[in-house]
Design goal:
mainly alpha, Heat Shock Protein 90, five-stranded mixed sheet, 25 helices, 5 strands, rod-shaped, disordered N terminus, disordered C terminus, protein dimerization activity, HATPase_dom, kinase, transmembrane helix, membrane
Length: about 650
C-alpha cells in the first residue's frame, strides 16, 4: 500500500514538471500553454504548503506573466502571498508583494501597486536583501514615472542605486540609469538625460543582461528621442538606425522595433528627408495595429497627421488626427488624447476653441490626479511607516512583556526547584527516620520475642527440675517401699505389687524423657525472625477464614541477615495479607520463603479475585511493596488477572557465604 502511495506521489511530481515545461514552450499556442499552466496550478493547490510548493507556484506565476494572462497571474500571486504569510516565509512574502505590485500596475491600480511595492521594500530592507530591495525601488520609480511624478521617481531611483553601489548588479544599474535618462528627458534636462543613457549603455553586460532584452536597442531609441526633442534630427536618425541594426530585434521586442521605425520616420520627416518616410510610418502602424499597441497606434497616427498636414494634405492630416483622438478616447487613458486635441486645434481653426477647452479640461484633471496620486504615494509611505513604527513599538512592548514573563517564569521555576529539592530532602530525612523507626520496632519485636523465649526456657527448666527432683524422687520412694513388700508371699498381693512396680517404672521413664526433651529444646529453637513471622501467620489463621499454607526455609541463618531486610520482608508479608483479606475474597493463601542460588525468594499467592495490574499500579499497597523491595535492592514481579488470583514474587540478593549454609 505504501509503495503504491509513493508511486502516485512520484507520478504527480513528474506530471507537474511536464506541465510547467509545456507551459513555458514558445512553440505552443497561447490556449495550450494556458491549459498546461492551469493543470500545474491545480496540482500545486492540492499539495502541502512547503517551500518547494511555493517555489513551483512562483514558476506558474512567471508563466502567466509571460503570457500576459493578468487575471490568472493575479490569482496565483494572491495564493502565493497567503501561503507565504501563513508559513511565516518572510522572503517569499516580500517577493509575493512585489509580484502583486506588478499585477496592480498592469491594471492601472497605481495606489495598490505602490502599497505592495512599499511593503515588499520594507521586508527586503529588514532582510538586508540589497538586490531585491533595489529592484523593488525601481518598480516603485517606474510606477511614479507612469503617474508623471518625475521628481519622486528620480529620488526613488537614486535610493535604488545607493543600495547596489559596489555590488555586482549590472542589470539594475542599467535599468536605473536608463530610467534617469528618461526622467531628465521629460524634465527638459537633455544633457543629463544623455549622460545617464551613456552610463546605461556602458553598464550593459551580456552575461548578466540577456540579449533578448534588447538593452542596446532600448538605449539607442531613448537617446534618439532626446536628440529629437533637442531638434538634432540627424543625430537622432543615427541612433534610431543603430537601434534597428540590433540582431533579432523584431522577434525579441516587436514593440521596440515598431517604436524605432516610427521615430526614424518622424526624425527623417523633421530633417526634411522624404525617402521612405510614409512607408516606415505605415509599416510601424500596421504591426502596431495587428498587435493592438494602443499607445503606439496613437503616436503613429499623430505623426502621420503632422506629416500629411505639413505636405498640404489637410484632409489626411485631419483623418489621422481624428483617428488618433478616437483611439485615445477608447484607450481609457486621457493623457493619450492631449496631443491629438492640440493637433486638431491647429488643423481645424474653427473648432479650435472646442478642442482647446477639452484639452484644458483634460490637462487640469490630469494634473489634479497626478498631484493627488503623488500625495497618495507620500501618504502610503507615511502611513505604512507609521504602522511599521507602531508594530515595532508593539513588538518592543511584547518583547519586554515576554522577557518579563520569562523572568517571572524562571523565578517561579527556580522557587519550584528549590521547594521540590527541600521536599525531596524532607522526604529523604523522613525515609531515614522511618528506617530508624523500623529498626527500633524490629529490635523491640526481637527483644520481646527474646524475653518470651527466655521466660519459656526458664519455665521449661523449672518444670523439668520439678519433675526430676520432686515427682521422680517421691515415685522412686514409693517404688522402693513397694519393692520391700515383695517379701510377702501372698499370691494376689505379689501380682498386684508387681503390676504397680511396672507401671511406676513406665511413668518414671516417661517423665525422664519429657524432662530431657524440655532441656534439649533450647538448642533446637528457631530464629526469632521466623518466630515473629510464625506469630503473624498464626494471627492470620485465627482471625481470617482463608486457608493459609506457609513454607519457611529454616536452614537459612536468619541472624546474619540485616534487620532492614528482615523488617521490610515482614512488612511486605503483612501488607500482602491485608490486601488479600480486604479485596481478594480468596479461599487459599500460600506464603513461601526460600533460597534460590544467590537470592532469597518471597512468594505470596492466592486464588482470589485478581486485578488489572495496569489500572492498579498506583495503589498505595503495591507502591509500599515496591518501595520496600527497592530498599532491599530487590525486584518485584506481580502476576494477576481478574478471576485468576494473584502471585507476588520478590527476589532479594544475598551473599551466600554469610547468609546461607
Amino acid at each position: 500500500m505504501k509503495h503504491k502511495e509513493k508511486t502516485n506521489t512520484n507520478s504527480t511530481e513528474d506530471s507537474l514538471a511536464i506541465y510547467l515545461n509545456l507551459a513555458n514552450t514558445d512553440d505552443l499556442f497561447f490556449k495550450k500553454k494556458q491549459y498546461f499552466n492551469q493543470k500545474a496550478f491545480t496540482i500545486l493547490m492540492n499539495q502541502s504548503n512547503d517551500s518547494l510548493n511555493r517555489l513551483n507556484l512562483f514558476k506558474v506565476a512567471n508563466r502567466y506573466y509571460n503570457m500576459n494572462d493578468w487575471r490568472s497571474y493575479g490569482e496565483t500571486v494572491r495564493v502565493l502571498l497567503y501561503k507565504s504569510l501563513n508559513a511565516q516565509d518572510t522572503a517569499n512574502t516580500a517577493k509575493a508583494y512585489s509580484y502583486l505590485g506588478e499585477y496592480y500596475g498592469s491594471q492601472s491600480i497605481s495606489d495598490s501597486a505602490f502599497m505592495c511595492y512599499f511593503k515588499a521594500e520594507k521586508i527586503f530592507l529588514r532582510l538586508n536583501d540589497t538586490y531585491n530591495l533595489a529592484k523593488t525601488r525601481l518598480n516603485k520609480a517606474n510606477l511614479q514615472y507612469a503617474e508623471n511624478d518625475f521628481l519622486g521617481s528620480e529620488v526613488t531611483v537614486f535610493n535604488a542605486l545607493r543600495v547596489i553601489k559596489g555590488k555586482d548588479a549590472n542589470d539594475l544599474v542599467y535599468e536605473s540609469n536608463n530610467l534617469l535618462g528618461i526622467l531628465n528627458n521629460e524634465l527638459g534636462e537633455y544633457d543629463k538625460a544623455l549622460e545617464y543613457h551613456n552610463k546605461a549603455l556602458k553598464s550593459i553586460d551580456d552575461e548578466v543582461i540577456p540579449s533578448w532584452n534588447q538593452s542596446k536597442a532600448t538605449s539607442f531609441n531613448n537617446m534618439g528621442i532626446v536628440y529629437q526633442n533637442m531638434g538634432m534630427y540627424k543625430k537622432a536618425i543615427n541612433y534610431f538606425n543603430r537601434g534597428l541594426e540590433q540582431p533579432n530585434l523584431i522577434t525579441d521586442k516587436v514593440a521596440l522595433y515598431t517604436m524605432l521605425l516610427d521615430n526614424l520616420a518622424y526624425s527623417r520627416f523633421k530633417n526634411n528627408e522624404s525617402a521612405n518616410v510614409p512607408e516606415l510610418f505605415y509599416k510601424s502602424l500596421k504591426i502596431r495595429d495587428s498587435l493592438n499597441f494602443m499607445t503606439g497606434i496613437i503616436a503613429n497616427k499623430i505623426h502621420l497627421a503632422e506629416y500629411y498636414a505639413s505636405n498640404g494634405d489637410t484632409l489626411k492630416g485631419l483623418q489621422f488626427s481624428n483617428e488618433a483622438l478616437k483611439t485615445a478616447r477608447s484607450s481609457k487613458n486621457d493623457r493619450n488624447a492631449l496631443i491629438p486635441l492640440k493637433q486638431l486645434a491647429i488643423l481645424e481653426p474653427k473648432k479650435a476653441a472646442t478642442y482647446n477647452k477639452e484639452y484644458i479640461h483634460i490637462n487640469d484633471s490630469l494634473q489634479k490626479a497626478e498631484r493627488k496620486m503623488g500625495e497618495k504615494f507620500s501618504r502610503i509611505e507615511y502611513e505604512t511607516d507609521q504602522i511599521i513604527d507602531e508594530n515595532i513599538n508593539l513588538e518592543t512592548k511584547n518583547r519586554n512583556l515576554l522577557f518579563g514573563f520569562s523572568a517571572f517564569m524562571m523565578l517561579g521555576l527556580l522557587l519550584f526547584v528549590i521547594k521540590s529539592q527541600k521536599a525531596k530532602n524532607r522526604e529523604l530525612l523522613f525515609k531515614q527516620e522511618q528506617q530508624k523507626v523500623n529498626e527500633e520496632i524490629y529490635n523491640l519485636m526481637i527483644s520481646q520475642q527474646n524475653t518470651i523465649e527466655t521466660n519459656r526456657v526458664k519455665e521449661k527448666k523449672r518444670v523439668a527440675q520439678e519433675l526430676h527432683d520432686g515427682v521422680l524422687g517421691r515415685m522412686f520412694g514409693i517404688r522402693m517401699n513397694l519393692d520391700s513388700l515383695n517379701k510377702m508371699h501372698d499370691g494376689t498381693t505379689i501380682e498386684k505389687r508387681t503390676n504397680y512396680l511396672t507401671e511406676l517404672k513406665n511413668i518414671e521413664q516417661d517423665i525422664r524423657e519429657i524432662s530431657h526433651d524440655l532441656n534439649r529444646e533450647k538448642s533446637e529453637l528457631i530464629n526469632n525472625f521466623v518466630a515473629i513471622v510464625d506469630n503473624l501467620l498464626e494471627e492470620q489463621k485465627k482471625t481470617f477464614h482463608p486457608k493459609l499454607v506457609a513454607s519457611i526455609d529454616r536452614t537459612i541463618k536468619w541472624e546474619l541477615l540485616s534487620n532492614s531486610v528482615k523488617i521490610n520482608l515482614y512488612r511486605i508479608i503483612q501488607e500482602s495479607l491485608q490486601n488479600i483479606n480486604k479485596y481478594a475474597n480468596a479461599k487459599t493463601i500460600k506464603i513461601e520463603l526460600k533460597k534460590n542460588d544467590e537470592d532469597l525468594l518471597l512468594i505470596i499467592s492466592d486464588d482470589g479475585n485478581g486485578f488489572d495490574i495496569n489500572k492498579s499500579k498506583k495503589g498505595i499497597g503495591l507502591q509500599n511493596i515496591q518501595s520496600r523491595t527497592s530498599e532491599c535492592n530487590g525486584t518485584v514481579d506481580i502476576k494477576s488477572k481478574k478471576g485468576d488470583g494473584t502471585m507476588i514474587t520478590i527476589s532479594v540478593p544475598l551473599e551466600i557465604k554469610q547468609i546461607l549454609t
